[in-house]
Amino acid sequence: MLDDVLMKYPDEETDYRELADPLQAEIGHIQREILDLKIPVMIIIEGWDASGISNICNRLIRYLDPRGYRLYPVGRPKQAEAEMPFFWRFALVTPEEGKFAIFDRAWYSRLIVENKGNIKDIFQRKIEDIKSFEHQFSDDGGILIKIFLHISHKEQKKRFKEADSDPCRSYYLKNIDWNPKKEYPEYFSVIDEILFRTNTPKAPWEVIPSENYEYAVYRVYDTVINRLKSAISEKREGVENICYECPLLSSGYCLPEPHAPMILDRKEYKSKKKELGKRLLELQVELYKNKIPLVVLYEGWDASGKGGAITRLTRYLNPRGYRIEPIGPPDVKEKERGYLWRFYNRLPRPGRIVIFDRTWYGRVLVERVEGLCSDYDWKRAYGEITEFEHFIDEWGAVIVKFWIHISKEEQLNRFRAREADPDKKWKITPEDWRNREKWDQYEEAVCDMISLTHTPCCPWTIVSGNDKYSARIQTFEAVIAAVEKKLKSLE
Amino acid sequence: MLDDVLMKYPDEETDYRELADPLQAEIGHIQREILDLKIPVMIIIEGWDASGISNICNRLIRYLDPRGYRLYPVGRPKQAEAEMPFFWRFALVTPEEGKFAIFDRAWYSRLIVENKGNIKDIFQRKIEDIKSFEHQFSDDGGILIKIFLHISHKEQKKRFKEADSDPCRSYYLKNIDWNPKKEYPEYFSVIDEILFRTNTPKAPWEVIPSENYEYAVYRVYDTVINRLKSAISEKREGVENICYECPLLSSGYCLPEPHAPMILDRKEYKSKKKELGKRLLELQVELYKNKIPLVVLYEGWDASGKGGAITRLTRYLNPRGYRIEPIGPPDVKEKERGYLWRFYNRLPRPGRIVIFDRTWYGRVLVERVEGLCSDYDWKRAYGEITEFEHFIDEWGAVIVKFWIHISKEEQLNRFRAREADPDKKWKITPEDWRNREKWDQYEEAVCDMISLTHTPCCPWTIVSGNDKYSARIQTFEAVIAAVEKKLKSLE
Asked: Which ipTM score applies to this complex?
């Protein structure tokens, strides 16, 4: 994609500054329309070093209302970013509805820099990751504009020479974490192929020759405005944004009967629990030493005992290293971003444990059954979720996913027992009874969820929950087994 | 405060676990009441090493609903925390209305550890900072519960010996950033005096003997429940939470006439601006090299030209190093925390620049005049703001505060010009006209603000704004002067 671009050089006659003027005046209006229509916009400016990325960014934001954009200069990750999954720092700053996030360099630069000397490996694994991350944003209604500023090697060398004599520019150049001077020939074909492979219909690249600054400014404005205008008219005309092939449902998977594999009396339970609890604490120290994060997901029927199982598990852990994240409906700010944003935001640091009481699977359970999102939203969520879990797995985390299963009769007994207990009465609400009436619909959703998201890296553990003691012991054992397996794989 | 506590040891006869039982059952109810009444609660557990802080925390959270609390283990700050003002990491996690923030160690431990060998200095400067930080939270209606777990030196030595043979405990002990074994005798009187000096009416210390674990648990529950119960009944009875002495207003300060100190024609203005702009870029590099943050605040009448002055200033800066923060009304999540929370959250990193278009002074301007907060809220804000700016100054930042002043007639001309311009018409709203009718009230608020917050470390610069060219040049010059002064002070 790079080869031909420098051929299309601007003619020297045209005053591109004059051409850009009306576009700069227009961008303010467009920004207000984007805000009205609640469209999130990401603009990434990539390019060769010394291609003028910063200058272009400064010119682009000059005519934008600062209330509506945020500029992210992407450099060496901070400690807290470097230890998280690669896309974490970007996922956290995806724009809210109607807002612009502008990236001065983005995940492409970081991928190349952080995988130096390992270019082949990038191709094998990372291109697909980038495409996942980008299509999730587009599928959600976001507009992603990708610009690459292109200059020739000769022009780059000339600019470095000029920069050397300018203390303001040379200071920054000395402090970046690669050696761009040597990289042009080495990286030309790599970058060319990355651009080609990630040039998707929803997130196409615009390669802009940047040897003439005013021409580049004009082209950037032109590109941004055209993409936004067509997004605005599509939204106004109600064009449906469907580009993801949803999976076939009704796989025929059936939940097993929730009978306990063992029945324990109180004494056996207590002694077993204590023994496993001790092992859990030892493993927590091992996770901490090895900087391995652990994510435990609890899903299950209402009153299946998720909360109780979590309390028992955490009793043995050091509170400095674990956190319980109860998941309810998203709050106002969370609703303004992609569905997975709040989960990126709740991942553990390395060596720490996060326990989710209900999880991202809410999308394909309660949101599906209650119609809280569109069909297209929950149908594509299976894919989004497996990709998200793949990012977490690749990062090195242990993931344990529980579905705590009880029978419909057992649930009724527990609801009644709760209502009869003055201390637990507040726990049971009319909503629980309403959910219960939709048992069959939920069961269908659960079966689809398990069959579509039971992956080799992140399998489900179905806990037979009719007997509480046994259910808790099953969860202890599954967590221990998963952590031990991971630790063994490191030996 | 430490001396006598170990004398009050529990009797061996009582079963404290039994005494704690009903309290543990009660805490859930109390938590729901606190949520209903929207009271934010901070609980900090400090104490000697090996006094059982983590165990106590784990026991305290076991009976709380995880949706309503968050536990913060406070250790060595992360890179991103260490480079910010001392209270930054704590200010960002103050609880939302109705929520609990529980600290496993807090600013007291950090202050002692981070100022090791410099204990005297702590006393001189830091005690007052701690008191400021704590009273701001209480003044805002928050409940701060401070607990110190006390054990004797002999008991501590015994516990360290035991821990040595327990791999889970000894691993953590080896990885903390001080040497607690040696510290007991050395720090006894220091800690005793810190506790004494920070034992304030709104944030008293509870020193709890912790050699008997069940007794300590009982006392912690008892302390927490009693404080919360009295907070609940005070709130229910509508007791006014007034404990801060508000300053006397009407200082007699008068705004000067907004005549330009110099009148520039367009050509002079352009050449002056370019020359100063070049200097600004040089200084941005110096700030970056020296890791000095710069905070520039723009306040001024509607249509006084804040936005225009900011655009001109940023044109010369490298966008990787500055950020514009336009300040409007707080959003839903921001309203649930203290007033200054969103400003802590927007401070620059070292070496970076943040430009506020409207600022925290909104509290004593628009919120005061429009009655958007209580009298007590805005009256105590003068003190809160000077303390906040003092934290920023102590951290090493440069702060520049502008009031851009125009005459009432000039404002009228500008409003009319905006209305006549189709591209600028959207900028002028009925609200602007309404604010204009309250000119005199705003003027009184501005005069109070300037006289009460014009401090030696953070003085105001009154910009004569009737002539736009001159106003912009004044802001350029003031920023340059402030940065140069700071750089000179480092030589």
From this structure: 0.87
